Amino acid sequence: MELIPPVLLYVLVDFSIYLIITLSLNIEAGYAGLPQFGRVLAVITGALVAGAIPGRMLAILYGYPYGAEYASYEFNFKIVNELNILLEKNPILSAGIFILTLIIAMVFGAAVGYLTSRPAIRLKEAYLGITLLAMGDVVMLISLYYSPIIGGTTGVMVPDPFRWTGPQRFAAATLILLGLSLLILAVVERLTKSPFGRALRAMRDSEIAVTVYGRDVAKLRTYALIAGAAIAALGGALYSFYTGSCIASTYTRVTWTFWPWAFMMLGGTGNNIGVTLGVLVFVVVKTLIVTYRSALAPYVPFDPVWLEYTFVGMAIIIIAMFRPQGLIPEKPVFTIPRKKIEKFIAVFEKT
Predict the structure, then answer these.
(1) Angle subtended at Cα 230 by Cα 58 and Cα 332, rounded to the nearest 5 degrees
(2) Tens of pLDDT along 192-207?
(3) Which is it for the CA torsion 185, 199, 202, 116, positive or negative?
(4) Contact at 8 Å (CB) between 41 and 203?
(5) pLDDT tens for each residue of 67-96
(6) Angle at Cα 31 formed by Cα 250 and Cα 240, nearest 5°?
(7) Is the Cα dihedral 12, 260, 108, 207 positive or negative?
């Protein structure tokens, strides 16, 4: 018996993964004002860590091949299948390898964020956006055609840290992903309301004003890219663990850059609660389209398999034209309680 209906599982998994990635994008684009069109770069970094590292660590531990042969099509399935049998009997090892991989993914993501911050110090607007987008494509193509990393075009299987949960594996994994996504939401909300978050808003609104007040714009950009990339890499690693495989061609700029942009724009840039709502609305509508697209075939003049992509593209255009502030617009954050500010203004006006 299914603990959670399949459709609801699909919604919750997509919501959890995309919420993490869109929140990371919101730090960089919504709060810092950076044209982050290379979100896929950090996401695929996390996925590569999940695809290349935990299986090899376990292979070394249990005496299996761990070099280039580990990623080969002929050996990978057999090795990972035997590793999964071992993980099924050892929940502690499963939890340990899961947590360790997520930490490594975030470290690698942070490193990628630092590397991408180098051009961000000098480039602005469209030039930076194009540079970041190209970086994402370069990493994807290298991992797609250089097979020793994750098996090239065939990809690799990823050891399953959720196997020990038995028949309810997908339900348990979904709930874990949902819990982690809500934890990231709480962390990002706290971060963006801190002095660092207010400095990012100030930099976005006026770099000159931030410089006048003694803040280093280059460092702020660097910190924003590091934080965002680390969180996005976490999302990429979680997606690989959930699906049980890692194939580079899965991580395209449409799915992992432009869709998060659409989610953020719908909810409201610079507003984490708005982003959460935007992700939820988009995921629910996308799931309905995927589930019922065969029934919609007589009513659309093209193959309904493209409906979800058409929907996202139209949504971006409509939002930009009629609701650029999103469903929940960004609200000002006061360092002093608003009542005290209003009281001070009233006293000042009297004098």
Answers:
(1) 150
(2) 989 899 999 999 888 8
(3) negative
(4) no
(5) 888 888 888 989 999 999 999 999 999 999
(6) 20
(7) negative
> Are the C-beta atoms of residues 17 and 182 closer than 8 Å to each other?
no
Q: What share of the chain is helix, strand, coil (3-state, %, to 5)?
A: 80, 0, 20
For 172-223, the DSSP string reads HHHHHHHHHHHHHHHHHHHHHTSHHHHHHHHHHH-HHHHHHTT--HHHHHHH
Q: Are 210 and 48 in contact (CB under 8 A)?
A: no
Alpha-carbon span 238 to 54, nearest angstrom: 13
Contact 272, 26 (CB under 8 A): yes
- Cα angle, residue 28 at apex, residues 26 and 34 outer, rounded to 5°: 120
Cα–Cα nearest to 34, from 220, 169, 281: 220
pTM of the model: 0.90
Per the structure block, which two tokens stand in for 46?
């996390």
Task: Indicate the helix (H) or strand (E) that contains 22.
Answer: helix 6-25
- Residue ranges of the chain with pLDDT lower than 70? 1-3, 333-338, 340-341, 344, 348-351
CA distance 79 to 19: 33
The one-letter amino acid at 282? F
Q: Which of 250, 68, 248 is nearest to 141 (CA)?
A: 248
Kindly write down the DSSP assignment for every residue of 76-119, as one continuous string.
Answer: HHHHHHHHHHHHHT-HHHHHHHHHHHHHHHHHHHHHHHHHHHHH
> In 3-state terms, what secondary structure has residue 245?
strand
> In this structure, are residues 231 and 109 in contact, taking their beta carbons and an 8 Å threshold?
yes
Question: How many Cβ atoms sit within 10 Å of the Cβ of residue 55?
Answer: 27
Structure tokens at 73: 């099509």
Spell out the domains of the chain, with CATH numbers in brackets: 6-252 (1.10.3470)
- Tell me whether residue 335 is exposed, middle or buried, using C-beta atoms within 10 angstroms of its C-beta: 0 to 12, 13 to 18, 19 or more: exposed
